[in-house]
Amino acid sequence: MICISVTPTSRTLAPADLLNASRKCDLIELCLDHFIAEPNVGELIKMVDTPMLVSCRREQDGGKWKGNETQRMQLLREAIVAGPAYVELDLEMAEKIPRFGQTKRVIAYTNLNRPLSKIDEIFAQCCKAKADVVKFTWLTEDLDGAWPLLAAVTQPREVPIVGIGFGRSGLTFSLLGRKYGSPWIYAALERGMEAFAKQSTVWQLQEDYRCGEINSKTRFVGIIGYGDSENIAARVINAAFSSMEKPIRCLPLLPGDLSKFPKMLEKMKINGLIVDPAYEGDLTSLAASRDELATASDRIDVLKEVAGGGWKGICTTFEAVDKAGAVVTGSTEWASRGSVTVIGNSARARGAAIFFSQKGAAVSLAGPSDNTAATMARAVGVRHVGWNAVHDLRTDILILADFGLPCGVAKGQVNPSMIRERMTVVDLTVGLRGSPFAEEAHARGARYLDPTSVFAIQLNLQFRELTGRDLPEDAFAKGLAE
């Protein structure tokens, strides 16, 4: 069940928000703390047939209420008299407001500073306050933060638990809550209407992650990353599994302490991970074994559990670059011809230097940090070029290898004047956003390897590594259309 949090500030516009939300959810949370002027809750409840949960949260609990506690208590009492399906009461307030009518009580505990360790103790206090549902809210910036909240939801209890994770792993918690039987999960109606920062939208939950298809039998493939490319990857892969009629869906993951991560994956029964191209973390410690390029480059973008235990790390990035480059240049031998200059200081730059060197190209490596680039060049056996001299190089293939590498003429930036006619430019500086290097390459008559094409090819390679099959032909079209 999805609960959409509606946060109107205007009494005039609130009915429209409620009507729009009612078409997309099973339960509406009407957040009274966002109203500028006191609303008539009784009238608003009658606007739609969808059951309603009324809340009025203090700023310390992530809400917008600026009045005093006496006023807030009076507003909640009046709301209960209006007869909503649920009312949310924080633990302090619950002791002062008795049960009334048919309205069920959601007793909430919030801590926005750190995850809670004594869940059972707080749960008992909420039950004592006559809770019909217990709600926990805290920070979930990574999986470590979400884990105690998930543990609370998954244990069988006499009173059900719902939760909200503030932060980047809130979506992860919501999807796992769906699998493990949380009474409902929270969502915003659309961007700009969130009840709290980074709240997932109902569209994201339903279309990107297909939460309506997730149940106790669903298995997950983890996607490590955060941002647009991760959402698109999830949408495409979920469309693929749906087309194949497999009860497998994508789960976004942001690891915290990597020493704890394998145990968490085991408990979630996850045996395959796809790493988003934009993810900059080092996952090599997770892999008991690696393929040749992953070993050479220290770059892993697929992790899969192998027979007998342990995880194998695989690098598909440069195979994807090779295939995309063959399309742009019209030659399968493009990577082995002429000279190649790799720009960057990251593991991605190291991997690119190794890959093109193995292909037989004459490779030079440069980066904003000369010391780092020189050390890397020696380690992989290619030529190092100082940063001050790199813009005078004549090269056939230019690899912009670091995510976020700046384009410009200032110190530490890549001067676009080094892009020349008929050069092949491989741009790994962005995810799926536009790149200033694309504009420069087109303007200067160079061939440009679009990150979008590399992303699409790589996603297919990653899917093949985990499933042994290519993405269904309609997966991209269907996933992106939806």
Brief summary of the model shown:
The chain is an alpha/beta fold and 482 residues long.
Task: Give structural notes.
With 482 residues, the chain is α/β, with parallel strands linked by helices. It has three domains: 2-206, Alpha-Beta Barrel (TIM Barrel), CATH 3.20.20.70; 228-315 and 457-481, Rossmann fold (3-Layer(aba) Sandwich), CATH 3.40.50; 329-449, NAD(P)-binding Rossmann-like Domain (Rossmann fold, 3-Layer(aba) Sandwich). Helices cover 35% and strands 19% of the residues. The chain contains 17 helices and 20 strands. It has helices at 14-22, 41-45, 69-81, 91-94, 119-128, 143-154, 170-179, 202-208, 228-243, 261-267, 292-297, 317-329, 347-359, 370-380, 436-443, 451-467, 475-481; strands at residues 2-6, 27-31, 52-55, 86-90, 104-111, 133-139, 161-166, 185-188, 219-224, 248-253, 272-275, 289-290, 302-305, 311-314, 339-343, 362-366, 383-384, 397-400, 424-427, 447-449. The strands form three sheets. Strands 7-6-5-4-3-2-1-8 form an eight-stranded parallel sheet. Strands 10-9-11-13-14-12 form a six-stranded mixed sheet. β2, α2 and β3 form a beta-alpha-beta unit. α6 runs parallel beside α7 and α9 (228-243) packs across α17. The longest helix is centred in the last third of the chain and has 17 residues, at 451-467. It starts with a strand and ends with a helix. The model has no long low-confidence stretch (mean pLDDT 88).
